[in-house]
User: What shape does this take?
Amino acid sequence: MLSFIPFLVLIGLVTCCIAVFGNATLDGASQVSLLVASAVSVLIGHFSKRLEWESLENEISEKIASCTPAIIILLLIGAIGGTWMVAGIVPTMIYYGMQIIQPEIFLVSSSLLCALVSLMIGSSWTTVATIGLALMGIGKAHGFDDGWIAGSIITGAYFGDKLSPLSDTTVLASSVSGTPLFTHIRYMLYTTVPTFCISLTIFLIAGLTMNVSGHGNVAEFMEGLQNTFVISPWLLIVPVLTGVMIARRWPSMVVLFMAILLAVVVALLVQSELVLRIAGDGQGLLTSYKGMMRVCYGSTDIETGNQVLNELVHTSGMSGMMPTIWLIICAQTFGGALTATGQLKDLMRLMLRFVRGTASLVASTVGTALFCNIATADQYLSIMLSSSVFKDSYRERGYEPQLLSRSCEDGATVTSVLVPWNTCGLTQSTVLGVATLTYLPYCFFNYLSPLMSIFIASIGWKIKRTCS
Assistant: This one.
């Protein structure tokens, strides 16, 4: 029972924070809540299990160190948001997208487009940080609410990420469960495709029935973009080259850095006047250098003559990612404390007591993966922990390993973006500028996937055994 106390403390504190601070909870209140819950976990471990502080500190330090690559990627994504905006790449995609995508089919089109891009590149983060930003602009111009727009983008991005052979979570889930990669992907189709079709149907009906009044905004947005940026289809060469680098399986950090570098060159060559305005008074190379440095690391306000468009093209650079990084560190501290004290394993062993048949086994796996997303704030650790806890149970009951790998992905990969302090939830809310709790109700694919996984298991469809 002691293992529940840190979670009860966290839930109580976060609930109070949401009631008091609302959408500003992630500005600092949630971070403090996580540290307080971590302290409670450490105190329980120290006094009930006589654990030494050094062992607890080492575990927490290792947990924080494990998220270093994600932190670096977050900083690079912040820089990409600024450079791709000032270089005119995102404004160009918004400009032409508003002419091509009709309001009635915008939501379903944005999901399909993000799904295609994410499937090809294997990264929901990169998809949201590039094409997702452009779609946010198009959706706002058409008059859609932020939650609907972000929900359609995230739905498509995580569908593609989940099924792409280039996705790190897909590879991880298949490898830790001992399932061949393409066997794992084929088996996920039974739950993933029906869920995505349901989500698309909802977006299609919503788009056809919504009374959006953004036609005037489209004309104003197009005029504002033309007056502020140089709009040209040639600017789309940068995302094309980025896609080529991803397809050639370059490391993520290298791809993001090269994408930033290309955007900087384009900005200096094509949007030189805008760069000088951002830098302030002055001319010459040093002033341009100053402007681009500001774009990469800091906040950038661009006057377009339209207040809504001003907010859309505003960028925060690397500095805008600092609250997210702060929260990640606090969340990793909490996860490290739970792991070091053994409280996380105690709670997961409790889940095994409820396993009776196929449906309860899958439900327990999915529930554990979701729980780990909340407790450890990391989708990779959630996949590994849920797989390690249930691997023997699946083997003993004669199930083929692809059922385990699919259940882990259905529970961990797609739900990570729904947790406000998870690395995925933090990243997507920061990049899109939409609070996690605002877009959560509209991420139909992400919360229907675990339910679909349990439903398919309950009816026994395509459930394979290694023995009778």
About this structure: The chain is about 75% helix and 0% strand. The chain has a mean pLDDT of 83. The first helix runs from residue 5 to 21.
